[in-house]
From TrEMBL:
Region (Disordered): 165-194, 220-276
Keywords, in A-Z order: Metal-binding, Repeat, Transferase, Ubl conjugation pathway, Zinc, Zinc-finger
Residue ranges, compositional bias (Polar residues): 165-189
Pathway per the UniProt entry: Protein modification; protein ubiquitination
Pfam families xref list: IBR, IBR_1, RWD
Keyword Chloroplast appears in the UniProt entry: no
Ranges for domain RWD: 10-130
Name of the protein in question: RBR-type E3 ubiquitin transferase
Family: Belongs to the RBR family. RNF14 subfamily.
Compositionally biased residues, Basic and acidic residues: 222-236
Annotated source species: Channa argus (Northern snakehead)
InterPro entries: E3_UB_ligase_RBR (IPR031127), IBR_dom (IPR002867), Rcat_RBR_RNF14 (IPR047548), RNF14_RING-HC_Zfn (IPR031128), RWD_dom (IPR006575), TRIAD_supradom (IPR044066), UBQ-conjugating_enzyme/RWD (IPR016135), Znf_RING (IPR001841)
Length: 551
């Protein structure tokens, strides 16, 4: 007896030194604990969910762990195996029962030695192979579960009929299965331990699948008794017996049908709105896989492609689209410069010839809320500018985005109600042609007829404005008295600007921003909407555009 207790203590101490605190938790008050075992997955392992004609397929690297809760009896390991509970969110009841039976066989083959580490090693390295799961885990669909439950219900009268002629011990074993606290007797595994394969409260948090295993054994009134018996369940949640019924053949692989999920208040509380149990399980698997990948990334050393320093992944950022890795400091400074300069389309991967962009969440964490707000606003504006059927309200007090109709030259701002012409961006003028630039004399003339008219030529207007801007107070006062007060001079300056723009610039065909060409070829890129066009004909570019005459 003392030798068994010493071996138990040595084994538990060894497990504490082998596993970290997330993998092994010891119950100090008794010889018990919990081991979390993550099954090793081969490269390219895929999880699949089929729903009718829709197939969701994802490549993953991690699956949620199997939970092995154990308690060591006083005569372990010499003559008795551990009592244990095996829990997993993505395995069926049949598969869990097969694993439990294999753990029992491993103890029997050990010859009375400690087996907890061997069990954990088997679950990690060989559990999937034992269940004939290799590179594909197919989750049972909800329709599959429903059909499986109906098939089980049709078979139940036959099971009960056979039970009436069974021996007393067989009937006793079957009766024990109706209890939520029952355990499979040693006869169920041919002199195996007391095993309770169940879904614990923790499994409720890991997955929304709650298997109604009583549906595999009872029908009619027996089912209603089981449902009423839910009030008697213990604090650990639903306890499911691990029976090796002749109908349950172990090792059927991941495609084995799972019993129909039970709808409980806890299911409804934890399940995301609008998701079926199968979709929720798939979501839980993908979230766990992403979390584990992030942990591995955070503990790995990478070289920043900008400063070439070696840093832990916790201090780096990996762009999802291209996979390039940079340290947070370098990428943050790069993004901040682009946002401050207003070139939000330049917030891309710093790697040469790479057009991938960081996600909005990554940009937010790098630049902070204030700059991210500017980035978000400019990115929306840039996106609207790149749309050929969107322009802005010409009113300076409004400036809201307006969606254009292809068959109409008029546009109506939904915010301020201003109707304007799409071509000239002035008040809508119906079928009349857009007004061209008129000479300064016709644009505005001072009300007082004694004032002189503004010069007609561009050079005269320019000389007048330069004289006014560079003159003394007396000179400005003289010009104001001659040509009118500030209204006439402001009109002259505005007309001068319009003439310069008409002579030296063209409008972007996408966002109508005025663009000046200072040199180079005729392929232009708008600095506002980033669209490319031909400077000569103001049309979009194609591979044969410059082969055409007049292009």
């Amino acid at each position: 007896m003392n030798a068994d207790l010493e071996e138990q203590e040595d084994e538990l101490v060894a497990l504490q030194s082998i596993f970290d605190s997330e993998e092994f938790v010891r119950n100090e008050s008794k010889s018990a604990g919990e081991i979390r075992v993550s099954a090793e997955l081969p490269a390219g392992f895929t999880v699949v969910l089929r729903e009718g004609e829709t197939v969701r397929q994802y490549e993953i690297s991690f699956l949620p762990p199997l939970l092995l809760n154990f308690e060591l009896p006083e005569n372990y390991p010499s003559s008795s195996p551990p009592s244990f509970t095996l829990t997993c969110s993505w395995l069926t009841h049949t598969q869990l029962s097969a694993l439990a039976a294999q753990l029992t066989d491993l103890y029997q083959a050990s010859g009375g030695t400690v087996v907890l580490f061997s069990w954990a090693q088997f679950l990690r390295e060989d559990a999937l192979k034992f269940l004939n799961i290799h590179n594909l885990l197919e989750l049972p669909s909800d329709q599959h579960n429903s059909q499986d439950t109906q098939s089980a219900a049709l078979c139940e009268p036959k099971i009960l009929a056979d039970g009436q002629n069974a021996s007393t011990s067989d009937w006793s074993r079957q009766s024990n299965l109706t209890s939520h606290h029952s355990k499979v007797s040693q006869n169920a595994f041919d002199s195996g331990p007391n095993i309770d394969v169940r879904e614990t409260e923790q499994a409720f948090q890991t997955s929304e699948f709650k298997d109604d295993y009583q549906n595999d054994l009872f029908s009619g009134a027996d089912k209603s008794k089981c449902e009423r018996g839910q009030e008697d369940k213990n604090e650990d949640g639903l306890s499911v017996p691990g029976s090796l019924d002749p109908l349950d053949q172990p090792g059927q692989g991941a495609t084995s049908p799972a019993p129909c999920p039970r709808e409980t208040p806890q299911n409804k509380e934890h399940r995301p709105s609008g998701l079926t149990p199968s979709q929720s399980l798939l979501s839980q698997i993908l979230i766990f896989d992403a979390d584990q990948k992030q942990k591995v990334f955070a503990n790995t050393v990478f070289d920043c492609s900008v400063c070439f320093m070696s840093l832990l992944g916790s201090e780096c950022v990996q762009l999802l689209d291209c996979g390039h890795i940079f340290c947070q400091a370098c990428l943050a400074e790069f993004c901040k410069v682009q946002i401050k300069e207003g070139t939000v389309r330049g917030v891309t991967c710093p790697q040469a010839d790479c057009t991938a962009s960081p996600t909005p969440a990554q940009v937010r964490s790098l630049v902070g809320e204030e700059l991210f707000s500017r980035y978000d606003r400019l990115l929306l504006q840039s996106t609207l500018d790149s749309m050929s059927d969107v322009m802005y309200c010409p009113r300076r007090s409004c400036g809201s985005a307006v969606i254009l109709e292809k068959s109409s030259s008029a546009a109506l701002c939904s915010v301020c109600g201003f109707a304007f012409c799409v071509k000239c961006r002035k008040t809508y003028h119906g079928t009349e042609e857009c007004a061209t630039m008129k000479p300064p004399r016709a644009i505005k003339k001072d009300v007082n007829e004694d004032h002189a008219n503004l010069p007609m030529s561009y050079e005269g207007l320019k000389a007048l404005i330069d004289d006014y801007n560079s003159g003394s107070k007396e000179r400005r006062r003289l010009l104001e008295n001659r040509y009118g007060h500030r209204v006439a001079l402001a009109t002259a300056e505005e007309c001068l600007n319009d003439q310069w723009l008409a002579t030296n610039s063209k409008s972007c065909p996408h966002c109508f921003t005025k663009i000046e060409k200072t040199g180079g070829c005729d392929v232009m890129t708008c600095s506002r909407c980033r669209q490319t066009f031909c400077w000569i004909c103001l049309s979009g570019l194609s591979s044969v555009h410059f082969c055409k005459p007049k292009s």
